[in-house]
Amino acid sequence: GAVVSQHPSWVICKSGTSVKIECRSLDFQATTMFWYRQFPKQSLMLMATSNEGSKATYEQGVEKDKFLINHASLTLSTLTVTSAHPEDSSFYICSPSYTDTQYFGPGTRLTVL
Amino acid sequence: AQSVTQLGSHVSVSEGALVLLRCNYSSSVPPYLFWYVQYPNQGLQLLLKYTSAATLVKGINGFEAEFKKSETSFHLTKPSAHMSDAAEYFCAVTVFSGGYNKLIFGAGTRLAVHP
Questions:
Q1: How many secondary structure helices (H) and strands (E) does chain A include?
Q2: Using an 8 Å Cβ cutoff, are B101 and A100 in contact?
Q3: Distance set, CA B9 to CA A93, B2, B61, B84 (Å)
Q4: For residue A92, what is the nearest residue in chain B, using CA coordinates?
Q5: Closest residue to A102, CB basis, from B45, B103, B107
Q6: Low-confidence ranges of chain A (pLDDT < 50)
Q7: What is the C-alpha separation between B23 and B108, in angstroms, rounded?
Q8: Nearest to B51, CA basis, from B79, B7, B23, B92
Q9: Mean pLDDT across chain B, nearest whole number?
């Protein structure tokens, strides 16, 4: 149980383009979704939190207009990195929550050239 | 505010030796504490969690951790290391903020196991 998928697993894009990352909870309904970013050899930093159908709440220092989060259903959330720049290159991990337990996706490696 | 501190960014042990990864927490309320493992380019896998029940928590893959309130610690141990234990380990605490229970992670400890 508690299977989480992310797509794509890795993506390379040019600077200035937008990239969408999908996160799906395959066998449970996630009332809350957390998105984390992990730079190389560093820990996971929480970017934002959202409930299904509601606007995301962003952590301090995270630009809401740059990292667009959509949590349209209980099984799908998307993170769109708009106008990506090389400094946005990172490992993005989603974490859907069910009954106060957080599960983690396998991550998406974004490289911006 | 709740936080966790992992002492030692790198730990190296011999195969078969004791594994000890240190985590200290700071919390004004009884904390919920977790240990996760991350293999390269993968997400996180829960090893074990403390939620105010038994202070000695047993997890997967032979790992266990003991909650010590007097020392504000939640160290992760395994009696005998395997090569497959080489990975990054994260201690985490639940923080209630902005209406959500959020997991906040420590900096991580990279465990190397050598023959």
A1: 0, 11
A2: yes
A3: 21, 20, 21, 19
A4: B43
A5: B103
A6: none
A7: 9
A8: B92
A9: 92
- Give B73-87 pLDDT, tens digit per residue: 999 999 999 999 999
Query: Who contacts B36 (Cβ-Cβ below 8 Å, separation ≥6)?
Result: A104, B44, B45, B46, B47, B89, B90, B92, B105
How far CA A22 is from CA of B12, B14, B47, B85, in Å, comes to 36, 40, 25, 30
SS3 at position B62: helix
CB B23 within 8 A of CB B35: yes
Distance of CA B12 to the CA centre of its chain: 16
Closest residue in chain B to residue A4, using alpha carbons only: B43
Closest residue on chain B to A93 (Cα): B43
B90 closest CB neighbour out of A43, A57, A105: A43
Q: Are strands A10-13 and A108-112 parallel, antiparallel or unpaired?
A: parallel
Cβ-defined contact of A57 to B98 (cutoff 8 Å): yes
The two structure tokens encoding residue A102:
């957080």
Supply the DSSP symbol for B80.
S
Q: Report the candidate in B90, B82, B85, B79 with the shortest Cα–Cα distance to residue B111.
A: B85
Q: Answer yes or no: are the C-beta atoms of A47 and A62 closer than 8 Å.
A: yes
Asked if A20 and A67 touch (Cβ cutoff 8 Å), the reply is: no
Q: Do A91 and B41 touch (CB under 8 A)?
A: yes
